[in-house]
Design brief:
The protein has 263 residues and is of the alpha/beta class. The protein is built from twelve helices and six strands.
Length: 263
Amino acid sequence: MDSSEIYWNDRALLEWQVELGATDAILDAPVDRYALEAAKPAPKVAAATEKPAAAPVPTKAPEVDAVALARTAAETAGDLNALSSAMQAFEHCELKKGARSFVFCDGNPAARVMIIGEAPGREEDRAGRPFVGRAGQLLDRMLEAIQMGRAADDAARSVYITNVLPWRPPSNRTPDKDEIAMMLPFLERHVALADPEIVVLMGNTPCQALLGRTGITRMRGNWVDVLGKPCLPMFHPAYLLRNPIAKREAWADLLDLNARLRG
């Protein structure tokens, strides 16, 4: 029988076995599985003196002292432009990642009055300037009522405006204490470089940052010292939009500010 006949004969036998229901190929002799198990080599047992290898200890990244880094960056800024650049380069505030714009200041840096708010809102984030939304428009009208404004060329009647934080918090939420502490060295340096005669703190957040306490309804209208300068806490214009009845107290504070400037 030649090779071709052997092939076709074997194939016919295989097809016949498949038709009978065979599914697996087996050997021509049974296998003693118990003998195979007995012949399997025993697992190696470590000697009593042999210690198991210690699991690698994951290395922990060193913690970053963001406040100290902010303080160093702020102290090296010799003017307002350098301070702005240092703040924009600061990478440790998570708010920067979600904000559209860096919001530094507006108004006249030589102004006698420096107004400090909380943080940019949606409109401020879009424009890159503080106090340009509805609250900012109300602030402008309030200042005009005492013949002052951010656009005034005369330093005696102009204002300089900034915020505690230069980046918008998500959904305009209130800044947390860690964010305030992180940006405080920049704010303190900002006040030192602008060197205003009077500081106005609008709302709870700047009061918490520079005075260490909140409660604007109790603090407003009461002059205090901050960073060696006379300071007047006032209601934030956004609060006045929500509580128009408080505009009477805000007007009294504006008159007090104006009297202080003219005195």
